[in-house]
Amino acid sequence: MRKVRVQTQGVEYRTVARVVSLENLSAQWRPELRFLVRAADARAVTKIAQLRSAGLANLILLIPNRDAAGQWQAETVLETGGTLIDGDVVAVADHMNHAHVLFRYTDQHHTVFLTNRCNSYCLMCSQPPTKHDDSWLANEAVQVANHMASSPHTLGFSGGEPLLLGEHLRRVLDTFAHHHPNTRYDVLSNGRLLADPSDAEHLLNGLSERMTWMVPLYGHADFLHDFVVQSPGAFEETLAGLLNLHRFGQAIQLRIVLIRPVLENLAGLCEFIGRNLPFVREVALMACEPIGFALANPELTDVDLRDWSAELSHGFRTLKRAKVPAILMNAPLCALPQTLWPYAHKSISDWKRTFAEDCATCTVKAECAGLFSWHRQGKHAMKIQKIEGIINV
């Protein structure tokens, strides 16, 4: 989650607010929302103070330096590192030394974080789960939906495992669908808690058709999948969840993170999907994100996809024969055989993406997914080699 360093005063509790300029406030103001109103000079501060005195108590002053505050005594946010952007939805509080950017208007990829709890313990989890109660995040997500001034093309929900929210997940999904009906939604979930038909019906019946469920599958046999997610019985629960998603007409993207035990059995997994799960919308094969539990299991997770070109190519051919669409995510083009470049997507979130020094003059940089910002050249198996010459992607 992106953070911007700030100092707050008078914001006693964690508060969600929309960043807005003073000039645009009148067009956006609503009594049920909170606003961080940007003031660049004393005149603007005076105007905002007058508005608060007139009854607009939902305004928080946003200033670039302490001198700009003047005689202002109410809730204040001082930018001390980085910049908040008009249209951002943020969470601030006095006990925090930063603003959590919950929605950034200018991003290409948008994600709402719903929980850090999970019922799996994946070997390569980039967001290691915790057990503490964070159910308040569901209420905050509802506030994010209300505070967003624009509707992005696509927005994702992630965790942890969102299904652990129970009935609160449906409330979150319905709220976003109501306020942003033209947005498409991606729900990243292991699907296990949808194995129960009654639970699945309670959550999925009548749910917006603009949802896609992104469900991981790591093997074509229980011992393979269960080993990767470190949860006995997960394979059977995942399959039952997938069937219930299909029963309620929900779109499904299967996700396969390309770590060593998965790559060793990729042929069998792709064959299994083609034979038993032909109804999925697509299959996403994903390079592993080198953070979290992946750092604790490098012998299983730290791979160079160049060494597995044959397995990847065979897997794509198998899925193509079964007429199951497939894509590649999170992988730089130089790590893939050129025959698979048309399937590669620029999928790494804006704030997570970086490039190595060698990428500066690479011919295909503009079309490349790049690297996760925590990738360290020379410390991880994935090697970067710039591509020269005129090549069609």
Number of helices: 12
Largest sheet: 8 strands, parallel
Over the alpha carbons, how many angstroms does the gyration radius reach? Answer: 23 Å
- Percent helix among the residues? 25-40%
The number of domains is 2
Poorly predicted runs of 5 or more residues = none
Can you write the helix and strand succession as a string? EEHEHEEEEEHEHEHEHHEHHEHHHEEEE
Helix-strand category: alpha/beta
CATH class of the largest domain: Alpha Beta
Strand content: 15-25%
Average predicted local confidence, pLDDT: 94
- Terminal CA distance reads 32 Å
**Number of DSSP E strands:** 17
Stated plainly, the CATH topology of the largest domain is called TIM Barrel
What general outline do the C-alpha atoms trace? globular
Label the CATH architecture of the largest domain.
Alpha-Beta Barrel
CATH superfamily membership of the largest domain:
Aldolase class I
Strands side by side in the biggest sheet: 8-9-10-11-12-13-14-15
Protein name: His-Xaa-Ser system radical SAM maturase HxsC
Pfam families: Radical_SAM (PF04055)
Cofactor: [4Fe-4S] cluster
Organism: Pseudomonas shahriarae
